[in-house]
Design goal:
Elements lengths: L3 H12 L3 H8 L3 H15 L4 E2 L5 E2 L1 H23 L10 E7 L1 H4 L3 H12 L1 E7 L6 H5 L5 E4 L8 E15 L1 H7 L8 H4 L2 E3 L6 H8 L8 E3 L3 H9 L5 E4 L4 H6 L3 E2 L6 E10 L3 H14 L13
Parallel strand pairs: 3-4, 3-5, 7-8
Antiparallel strand pairs: 1-2, 5-11, 6-9, 6-10, 6-11
């Protein structure tokens, strides 16, 4: 039989990114949390955490975390069916991994009715759309939005739609670096803006123009800051159309070389045994995302 006090300690250490914060979240001392982790490892005969900063789950630790995520959701279903089991707990908290551009555009409007109707609060973990699934694989989240189609074992993947990105810059930046008659090669010399090390959108755009190789770029891990840098004439970059409709309409941002847009497919991943709550969130997303995302599946040419 599982000892869920031990499993909850493991989940808290990973979710809170450390023993100190896990202890505060559980209302325990740091020593007590450490002892529970050690006891769990003694019973299993192998480590469940890598003592890094922050602590990372081992392979068996990930499996246990995935189990805990699903048990929490199933317990909520049972409490709804047997009200006597409700101990006056706080609203259910769901941990979701998603890309910053979704969070800054369509996500809030899509999930607000679900959160209100079901008394749910959300923990958002921001990851690039190409790597967000790693959070679910690590057992840190119950679901994620990412650009990877293939689901994990025990999970489902649902195509939500595609976000359309365009390569944009300010008119002043275009005049300075990409004057009329300049070849596409000038983009390799003009500074770009990249969200982070995992962001490959600028690379994909350059490849669509037949350009390869290194290029100068700013790093800006903020969707809002990304647009601010574009408006400040600091570089060019790929931005969701949804985020800059007003700037495009006013001419504050313009297309770079009229290159093709990049359509990034987004998939909703969730555990098969996630209970009614995840199933209802999945239905809500299915009903609503068509207002913001493009229905055609896969990247555009």
């Amino acid at each position: 039989m599982f000892d869920y006090k031990l499993l909850n300690a493991l989940a808290a250490v990973v979710e809170q990114a450390g023993f100190d914060r896990a202890a505060r979240a559980l209302g325990l001392s740091q020593s007590a949390v450490s002892q529970r982790i050690k006891l769990l490892e003694a019973r299993l005969g192998q480590p469940v955490l890598l003592r890094a900063t922050p602590p990372q789950p081992t392979e068996v630790g990930r499996r246990l975390l995935n189990h805990v995520q699903q048990v929490r959701l199933l317990e909520r279903d049972l409490q709804g069916q047997v009200p006597e089991l409700d101990e006056g707990r706080l609203p259910e908290r769901l941990r979701i991994a998603l890309n910053a551009d979704s969070l800054s555009t369509w996500w809030a409007q899509a999930v607000a009715p679900f959160c209100t109707a079901n008394a749910v609060v959300l923990d958002h973990l921001v990851e690039d759309q190409d790597v967000g699934l790693k959070r679910m694989r690590a057992g840190e989240v119950a679901a994620c939005v990412c650009a990877v189609e293939r689901p994990l074992a025990g999970a489902r993947s649902l195509f939500l739609g595609a976000m359309r990105y365009r390569a944009l810059a300010s008119p002043a930046f275009v005049a300075r670096h990409l004057a009329p008659g300049a070849s596409a090669q000038a983009l390799l010399r003009a500074p770009a803006i990249v969200f982070g090390p995992d962001d490959q959108l600028q690379h994909r755009f350059l490849a669509s123009l037949g350009l390869n190789g290194a290029f100068s770029h700013h790093l800006c891990p903020s969707s809002e800051g990304f647009v601010r840098l574009l408006q400040s004439d600091l570089g060019w970059g790929l931005v969701p159309e949804l985020q800059v409709e007003a700037e495009l309409a006013s001419g504050a941002l313009v297309n770079v070389f009229q290159g093709p847009p990049i359509d990034v497919p987004l998939y909703w991943h969730h555990w098969r045994n996630g209970g009614d709550l995840l199933a209802e969130l999945t239905r809500q997303l299915t009903r609503s995302v068509g207002r913001w995302l493009i229905a055609a599946q896969g990247p555009s040419s």
